[in-house]
Description:
The chain is an alpha+beta fold and 265 residues long. It has helices at 21-30, 36-43, 204-216, 220-227, 233-245, 248-264; strands at residues 47-49, 58-64, 70-74, 80-84, 87-89, 92-97, 105-109, 116-119, 125-128, 134-138, 147-151, 159-163, 168-175, 178-185, 195-199. Strands 1, 2, 3, 4, 7, 8 and 15 form a seven-stranded antiparallel β-sheet that branches. Strand 3 (70-74) and strand 4 form a beta hairpin. The longest helix has 17 residues, at 248-264. It starts with 20 loop residues before the first helix and ends with a helix. The model is unreliable at 19-42 (pLDDT under 50).
Amino acid sequence: xxxxxxxxxEKKSRKRKAxxxxxxxxxRSSAPNSAPDATEAVGxxxxxxxxxxxxxxxxxxxxxxxxxxxxxxxxxxxxxxxxELENIVEGDLRTAEPHDVRQVWVxxxxxxxxxxxxxxxxxxxxxxxxxGMLSATHEAISxxxxxxxxxxxxxxxxxxxxxxxxKFLSVSEPKAGLVEIRGDAESISFPTTFCIxxxxxxxxxxxxxxxxxxxxxxxxxxxxxAVGRKLEDDEVRRLKKARVEGDYHExxxxxxxKGKHDKYS
Length: 265
């Protein structure tokens, strides 16, 4: 389940619940084995750049190459517009974060295809019609609500969004202060290259890294209890490495067998 979005400057409210004796007992008994990094992996609300199409999942913003920097947003009626980015460092799109829920879209895979959809804050999907006009008024996904992300050539970390009609979303500035977004560009160019920012906890590489660190968090005492004897330093290192690499149980058996051989030698 996607967590409620939080923005810079907001104070996080903490809800207090009456303690349940049974649940308190269970939590206390499992506390020594808990891994702080595992909790952090689930609750990481920072924003990072999607570097590849396979990264894109969960809440995202489309940071556009405009002056000033803007992103794709939708109002409650489904009108799509360019919303100016306030949380950005010196105009660098790779630092952009949303300050308004209207700027955020939730990405999901379209079943049976390689396409993805973008769901707005109001529960409706980003759509592009045959004229290249964007809107967000549909509650169901059709080909017009399906898109592909394509890496921009010679632009690391930038992506282009292609419609089912093989056109591209693009940004233009017909006059100073006016930014328009359309979906009828014929090819990839600078106006079609966007920086897609996403929540860190959904990025596959970061998520895998944090899960790996969480698996590595096991104490010497826990390892010795699993083996049934005191361990040498090299045995502890070996078991921690095996825990990360996924062959922990096999390594435990090997260490146990080695201990029995040493005992009777």
